[in-house]
Amino acid sequence: MSAVDKAFHGLRHMIATGRLGAGERIPPEAELGEELGVSRGSLREAVRMLAALGVVEPRHGSGTYVSQLRPEDIIGSLSLTLELLPLPGLLEVYEIRRVLEAHVAAKAAARRTPETVRTLFSLIEAMEATDDPAEASELDHRFHAEIARAAENPTLASLLAVFRARSRKYQVFTLPEGPELRRKSDADHRVLATAIADRDPGSAAGAAEAHVTQTERWLRAFMPPVEEGAQGREKGGEADGALS
Amino acid sequence: MSAVDKAFHGLRHMIATGRLGAGERIPPEAELGEELGVSRGSLREAVRMLAALGVVEPRHGSGTYVSQLRPEDIIGSLSLTLELLPLPGLLEVYEIRRVLEAHVAAKAAARRTPETVRTLFSLIEAMEATDDPAEASELDHRFHAEIARAAENPTLASLLAVFRARSRKYQVFTLPEGPELRRKSDADHRVLATAIADRDPGSAAGAAEAHVTQTERWLRAFMPPVEEGAQGREKGGEADGALS
DNA sequence: CGGCCAGGATTCATCTGATGACTTTCCCTT
DNA sequence: AAGGGAAAGTCATCAGATGAATCCTGGCCG
């Protein structure tokens, strides 16, 4: 086993067995490196791996701390790389989104509070009022995040947040057809929010699924089709510079 | 921005824009480090981060290569850390599994081939024949993976595979009640496989959801309850040495 | 007595240089 | 032409030194 692997698995094992608890500071590099039998450089590479995976967080001058190990910490690591997924994979993500958004919508409808309903409709009004595509995208994200929050499953909420972030990168609202798409999207949101306000899980699930399906259809229609046998590799046309 | 961040984002951008394609070898450390304006050490830390996330793969003596960027490459990175998730988070994962397993079961029922049905029943027979809990767990995994495969969504299949791997770490079949639980599990499998063989998506979804719910119930019943306000931190009892 | 501040100690961040291990390539020998 | 071995290329690892950010301690001042 390589030195970095030894440090990586050793450190992970210390966390898994509770020797290093959530939020705790791990020993200094020199000390831990000696204990694990690797140099500081190799240990640092292992720590960086765990940091990329959301397990630890180094703080300059202070120390390196184990994260809270909450679902969002672990799942959030996907957001760094999910945008590298080629288009065919993205369409598969949409199928997952469709199922899960329908589920959280139904659950939110069953568990909604008056505050949730108020928040949803105020976000809808803000969405309908703005002309800025970027702001509309941000409000759209918060609208769906609010529904996921109401479903009371943080793991599921963060998973959907990661998936949505991937979709947002394509910025369909900035297309020439953007305003038209946004009007349709706003209408979808009102149907969905109304179903939740009415405590109607079935309608909410249907509305959420239809909304995701609609978004997926736009993506298929307006995005460059993938050439056959091209190993799923994207060309350089990623609309990346505007927001990231 | 720190040197490692500069290298990490720079390298990721080179991949996102297609300057480095899937499967391609990236420039040598010395050359790439100079281009990105960081030392070899910092570049290596950034490369390790991307490796942990499934984006690149260093090969000793040969070079560092961009992965195929398939969904399983990206999602598979979760398997390294999902086992660190405390128990409360795991129960939230079960809710996601329940929804998604039901979906893939329904889809598999709609799209099944004779080969799929044959494979499922042969796995069931092997499961019923063995006495080894570890082998039973492995066959159980392959049974569900086959259903996910039949649903023709590799991203979803790998996501479910990661979730199942986390659950398997608890090894309920090795408990004193194991044999009894396995008989119930085997019966569930027959119901599910029969529904798929009958091309009955509704029954398949119901059977899959019931099966996951049953597993979750076992976990709640037999695993140590979490003490209130304990920040979800696990004690050292993880049954880790047997299989990993 | 309490708060503030300066300086030292601690810790991570980065760079440089050197050596070893592994893979690939290519040329020489048979 | 095939096989073997040397050489180049590349990642892996270690050691040492310096910089930067934070934390802590002790003394000073109000």
From TrEMBL, chains A, B:
User: What PROSITE patterns does this protein map onto?
Assistant: HTH_GNTR
Q: Does the keyword Nucleotide-binding apply?
A: no
User: What range(s) does the HTH gntR-type domain occupy?
Assistant: 1-69
Matches recorded under InterPro entries: GntR_C (IPR011711), TF_FadR/GntR_C (IPR008920), Tscrpt_reg_HTH_GntR (IPR000524), WH-like_DNA-bd_sf (IPR036388), WH_DNA-bd_sf (IPR036390)
CDD domains the record matches: WHTH_GntR
Give GO terms: molecular function aspect only.
Answer: DNA binding; DNA-binding transcription factor activity
**Which controlled-vocabulary keywords does the entry list?**
DNA-binding, Transcription, Transcription regulation
Which Gene3D superfamilies does its entry note? Answer: GntR ligand-binding domain-like, Winged helix-like DNA-binding domain superfamily/Winged helix DNA-binding domain
Q: Is DNA-binding found in the keyword set?
A: yes
Q: What is this protein called?
A: GntR family transcriptional regulator
Q: Which organism is it from?
A: Streptomyces flaveus
Q: Organism classification, top ranks?
A: Bacteria, Bacillati, Actinomycetota, Actinomycetes, Kitasatosporales
Gene that this polypeptide is encoded by:
pdhR
